[in-house]
């Protein structure tokens, strides 16, 4: 595969649009070339590899985000509560990742709603359980399914 074809695969994995991907890497007749590239096995294999990599990266980012919500500090948000009047400029540079919502009701007080730490911990636990599954569980399910098929065949045999 050429360097240009690899760049096409990267662009396609990012956009999901063959014409746009072909156009972005400089192919003439991107409508024709983009669709033609998608018919090649090595191009599809590279796109699949890139999709898998992007999915893995997204999962890692989600996991890191849940960790920040579950274990992160709320010190900056509390500091923001006490600075009240200087809210507009005070928020710059603060770590407000754990904050879901900030309101200033008519009374003038500042309300801060945080993301739910328990839900974040549940997601982290769920992620850990899914990571523990894997090839062994798949293999066991496959063997179990094959055994059930064999049992049914024996039952239906005269």
What is the total domain count? 3
Identify the overall geometry: flat
Strand content: 5-15%
CATH class (first level) name of the largest domain: Mainly Alpha
Mean pLDDT: 84
For the terminal residues, how far apart are their CA atoms?
56 Å
- CATH topology value of the largest domain: Arc Repressor Mutant, subunit A
Total number of helical segments?
8
CATH architectural label of the largest domain: Orthogonal Bundle
Fraction of helical residues: 55-70%
> What are the segments in which pLDDT stays under 50 over at least 5 consecutive residues?
none
Instruction: Please provide the ordered H/E string of secondary-structure elements.
Output: HHHHHHEEHH
Rg, rounded, reads 26 Å
Number of strands: 2
**Order of strands across the main sheet:** 1-2
Structural class: mainly alpha
Main beta-sheet strand count, sense and barrel state: 2 strands, antiparallel
């Amino acid at each position: 595969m050429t360097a240009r074809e690899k760049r096409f695969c990267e662009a396609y994995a990012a956009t999901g649009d063959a014409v746009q991907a072909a156009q972005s890497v400089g192919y003439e007749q991107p409508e024709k070339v983009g669709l033609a590239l998608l018919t090649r096995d090595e191009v599809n294999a590279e796109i699949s590899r890139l999709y898998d990599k992007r999915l893995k990266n997204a999962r890692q980012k989600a996991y890191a985000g849940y960790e920040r919500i579950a274990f992160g500090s709320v010190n900056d948000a509390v500091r923001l509560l006490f600075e009240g009047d200087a809210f507009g400029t005070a928020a710059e540079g603060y770590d407000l990742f754990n904050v879901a919502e900030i309101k200033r009701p008519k009374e003038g007080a500042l309300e801060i709603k945080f993301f739910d730490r328990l839900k974040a911990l549940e997601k982290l636990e769920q992620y850990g359980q899914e990571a523990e599954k894997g090839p062994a569980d798949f293999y066991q399910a496959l063997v179990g399914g094959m055994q059930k098929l064999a049992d049914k065949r024996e039952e239906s045999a005269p």
